[in-house]
Description:
Strand order of the largest sheet of chain A: 6-7-8-3-9-10
Strand content of chain A: 25-35%
Number of strands of chain B: 0
Largest interface: A-B, 35 and 26 residues
Radius of gyration of chain A: 24 Å
Low-confidence stretches of chain B: none
Distance between the termini of chain B: 28 Å
Helix content of chain A: 25-40%
Radius of gyration of chain B: 21 Å
Order of helices and strands of chain A: EEEHEEHEHHHEHEHEEEHEEHEH
Oligomer: heterodimer
Largest sheet of chain B: none
Shape of chain A: globular
Largest sheet of chain A: 6 strands, mixed
Mean pLDDT of chain B: 84
Bound molecules: adenosine-5'-triphosphate, magnesium ion
Mean pLDDT of chain A: 87
Shape of chain B: globular
Order of helices and strands of chain B: HHHHHHHHHHHH
Amino acid sequence: xxxxxxxxxxxxxxxxxxxxxxxxxxxxxxxxxxxxxxxxxxxxxxxxxxxxxxxxxxxxxxxxxxxxxxxxxxxxxxxxxxxxxxxxxxxxxxxxxxxxxxxxxxxxxxxxxxxxxxxxxxxxxxxxxxxxxxxxxxxxxxxxxxxxxxxxxxxxxxxxxxxxxxxxxxxxxxxxxxxxxxxxxxxxxxxxxxxxxxxxxxxxxxxxxxxxxxxxxxxxxxxxxxxxxxxxxxxxxxxxxxxxxxxxxxxxxxxxxxxxxxxxxxxxxxxxxxxxxxxxxxxxxxxxxxxxxxxxxxxxxxxxxxxxxxxxxxxxxxxx
Amino acid sequence: xxxxxxxxxxxxxxxxxxxxxxxxxxxxxxxxxxxxxxxxxxxxxxxxxxxxxxxxxxxxxxxxxxxxxxxxxxxxxxxxxxxxxxxxxxxxxxxxxxxxxxxxxxxxxxxxxxxxxxxxxxxxxxxxxxxxxxxxxxxxxxxxxxxxxxxxxxxxxxxxxxxxxxxxxxxxxxxxxxxxxxxxxxxxxxxxxxxxxxxxxxxxxxxxxxxxxxxxxxxxxxxxxxxxxxxxxxxxxxxxxxxxxxxxxxxxxxxxxxxxxxxxxxxx
Lengths: 320, 268
Ligand SMILES: Nc1ncnc2c1ncn2[C@@H]1O[C@H](COP(=O)(O)OP(=O)(O)OP(=O)(O)O)[C@@H](O)[C@H]1O
Ligand SMILES: [Mg+2]
């Protein structure tokens, strides 16, 4: 049984006041997310990530298609007890404190007062809200609200969590903490489904990703398997490079391009066909020292740019 | 059921901390106090005037609380998107609507009770200021339990107004909801006049239309027994009963409508 599965999930919004036209926010999304995965849902702004999550939470209803969570239909209260959701830019009640908010949400799961007190304290510690927990939420900063949002999403020890841009609004330290939290959730057996438009978030976390552009799924699978993100070459930086060693390597086709960074200090571009270990050992045998070796890949940004350029401009239904 | 209770308590907590509510209650209490001063100016009429003004203040401020808090809370929940995380919890949408309503009713109950206590305190003080002879000519004693009947019906009326406010705010903007609720309230206060339209207009068609409208639109005048209570006129309990039933049916219909709309709504 999959944690999440969708089948041709489609959402049209009606736009225009005088002559409403359907606008395709999500176009026949078919997706399967296994249990215990950390799944990255990637795409540029306006791709339909939030729309998908709102459909899964039944905040909006699909135009067509269906979806299941934990093998059950979406509206099922049994499912709702076992999931958590962090909305995009979460916002809560002005006049409640962080503690009171989590206590309230805990009560909706039917937890008793003692149980709630225990959970709330542990959760706020976990997301790094200290003494501020007694402060009314209208006095919270964006990043602090985001942390409260994450805490409320896991108040019930969910089996599947849905995070809509969990890193947004967080400082670097906060990002690292959230990354760690997501891995901790995974280690507990929780499936983590999160949206992002930052590739590095996905690279350090995900077992699999799906990429959505213009409401359409354009790729899915392990990040390393996605054609666009495979290694396209290597960048090798060395010092102490002698002219003869460089000449020889270039002649053998081991180096495609050499950029001089300083005296005997070079950045070399190696083709994907060479084994970088051999090139490195050849150079070090001639007295060079290794500074860095980096695989060259297309970035998510480049990929988005390419996809957006290729995607049909007009998402109005019937004209696309 | 427990879920509705938790949602209601949250509404109550939130509204109690809202400054709008503080200021409304403070102002109403002030007004009830001030009615004492007004009474001083018109010798002899004091008790009746204070009762009249006090009851009117409870009804009016209750109306403002019902409309502003009622519409404000639902609108904020949707507009600020706190509803997103709420609806992902194991609750049904109709539980959310009913919980909101119950919470608003609780808020109103507490506020009406506070204003009632203020009114009774003013009246009790006044009572000590008069001789037995002066009290003998009053139609009803200053501290009169019978007044609670009028307050009870005012509370019921406020519950109907709140149900309207909630109903409108499930599908329209807060400004429009408030405008609609206030206009319905005004129409409802003049509802009995619609029924007697044939006495003022020539056209029978217009008279029928007015009569028809008077049955469809709420009749808020029915909840007003201030005069009877102040002058100690009889109010049959059958009247109290039918009016309560009328209010209950109205509330039930409005909440059913609100739930039906809310269930299908996209929160985008
Ligand atoms: N209520 C709405 N009415 C009309 N169109 C909408 C509505 N909500 C979203 N859209 C459109 O649907 C598309 C998908 O929006 P969505 O919010 O799902 O994007 P996203 O992938 O979450 O983007 P972001 O990274 O900016 O959060 C967008 O083009 C947006 O303009
Ligand atoms: Mg989004």
